[in-house]
Amino acid sequence: MSARVDKLKHSILISLWLVMVIWLIKIIEIAMSANFAAYGILPKQVIGLRGILFSPLIHGDFRHLISNSLPLLILGTILFNSYKEVAWKIIMMAYFLVGGLVWLTATGSSIHIGASGVVYGLAFFLLASGIFRKDRESIGIALVVTLLYGGLIWGILPVQAGISWESHLYGAVVGIVTAFYYRKIGERKEDASWYDLEIDEVDEHLPFFELLERKEAEDDEQRKFLPPSNNPTDFQ
Question: Is residue 235 in a domain?
Answer without folding.
Answer: no
